[in-house]
Amino acid sequence: MQLVAGGISETASRPWCRTSQYCSGAFSSRLNVPAPLLAVVPDGVSSVDAATISAAALTVRLAFDWAQLKPGDKVLIHAASGGVGLAAVQMARQHGAIVFATASKYKRATLREMGVEYVYDSRTTDFADQILADTDGAGVDVVLNSLTSEGFIEATLRATAHGGRFAEIAKRDIWPVERMAEVRPDINYEIVALDVTMMSDPDHIQKLMAEVSEGLATGVWTPVPAEVYPLTEARTAFRRMQQARHIGKIVVQMPKPLQPHGDRSYLLTGGLGALGLHTASYLAQLGAGDIVLTSRRTPDAETQQAIDAITERFHCRIHVFSADVGDEVSVAALLDKIRAELPPLAGIAHLAGVLDDALLPQQDLEHFRTTLGPKAYGAHHLHRLTKDDDLEFFIVYSSASAVLGSPSQANYATANALLDGLVAQRRAQGLPATAVNFGPWGHGGMASSQAAVANLSAQGMMPLEPSAALAALGEAIRHGAAQVTVLKANWQRTAKMLGGIRPPLLDQVLPSGDGSVQGDSELLRQLQELPVAARGGFITEFLQREVQGFLRLAQPPAASSRFLDLGTDSLMAVELRNRLFGQFGGKFDISPTAVFDYPTIGELAEHLVSQLPDSDAPAAPVTPEAPAEEPAPAAAD
């Protein structure tokens, strides 16, 4: 969060500083936060890192401060691989306490790698006896509890020493104070609720936030691991969180518009080509002060004239530096020159690329080196050598060939696919990155000649207007998208050209009447023609495939698998209902609680079979209407 204006507090007296806060409504583009609930993010700490630790550290401070944690205390931290759990491990160690931790099967190794000696399974209650054995029957002195499923609180109490301190941080199915007093009157029990304390004692929260902020600056607090999602993928982030498969925190990163600054520098590789000049003009129009164009050649008279026109019109400064971005030494020298002579580097647009087409049998190592060098290797060099630069954006111009394929361009498609992978890697590291898989550009792009236009038209492709392509780029940045495909096409013609090859992109842009409706009706027809006894197996296999896809499992789950054990929740139940409704022509409609009412895949399949007429005679096929759709430009995620 960036503070625009504040009140009278010390934090708020520093306009435009980066702040962290704990509040509701944080997914809004703008929100009001009371000044006492703000803390400055220290220099050198990224916004993502600050987001991982703030709320977790506050919860841990409230719990362990109440418990008066001291050296030698044995402290049990449940679900220790989560954000709060990892923060609790940090604080317990700082106090000289002995950590006992629980986590699920595949997360326990992470805790052991951190040096936690006593690690147990959080999915069973066996930890209680194991802790008693490891403590010679004494149990633990302090509990940070977040496991409230049936039997878990009782098991935790068995592992708690006489006179122990029990801090409850869960929200659901927790024990009231009266019940704890009845079952274990010797235990000190506290329900820790950060959101409640924030409202009842904001001054205390402000003090703790300032201490956490200072701890981040001094290294007392270390950011926890994070999985980072753009706001456009918030649904995926919530689903991931509900499945509880992550370690640390899940961070949703808010988008920022493409808004270059006059006191910063921006680097465009491949900047002397038509796309580079169009992009330079676009950035200059948005306010970029210094723009660096790189190429292995010097600008000719026509190119220099275009550069002069941009600088005169938008009052910016354009610098042309010679560099081979496929060579790491050359890239390092280029960046050193920018840092020494120009304002701070704030953005990179990587456009460099070379074509070296050949049919697949003729594609050799040299063909791949030619295309991978400037495009894939160049992007990697820029990524590695600018990790410490405060970049506003890192844009790569990828190609539609990476998502659709292109005859004679296996090497070029590979290079662009590597760009897309690099963007995913940077996003996972909390670094800015956007890949745009552009279709062919007109007006100076490779689709400018009449022959190229005719060839593209036969494939269903139409050249992009530069203004439209750049507007799509701006929208991609504004919405925080990691990767978008920008094409103008007659999709029916493109589909026919691809023949039996059907990239996933076509499923997003073709009208349902061009493939998906027929497939849906075909499923229903197949089901209705089966004998009654065989229908259950048919639907079971369908559900297995769908659940495998939702949860991204390596193989279909067994029919006896319980939805909840697999990580399915009510959100996925809604998706499953929609899939059933669409795939079987509206024949099936289940409630969002179906995965709870019929807890296994097999039981749900039996329920669905019971909705069909008990007859071997096929019913009339149901064909849902599909809206007419004209071929149109598409910008698809």
UniProtKB/TrEMBL annotation:
Segments for region (Disordered): 612-637
Low complexity composition bias: residue spans: 617-637
The keyword DNA damage is assigned to this record: no
Gene Ontology CC: cytoplasm; plasma membrane
Keywords on record: Multifunctional enzyme, NADP, Phosphopantetheine, Phosphoprotein, Transferase
SMART domains xrefs: PKS_ER (SM00829), PKS_KR (SM00822), PKS_PP (SM00823), PKS_PP_betabranch (SM01294)
Protein name, UniProt field: NADPH:quinone reductase-like Zn-dependent oxidoreductase/NADP-dependent 3-hydroxy acid dehydrogenase YdfG/acyl carrier protein
Organism in which the protein naturally occurs: Mycolicibacterium fluoranthenivorans
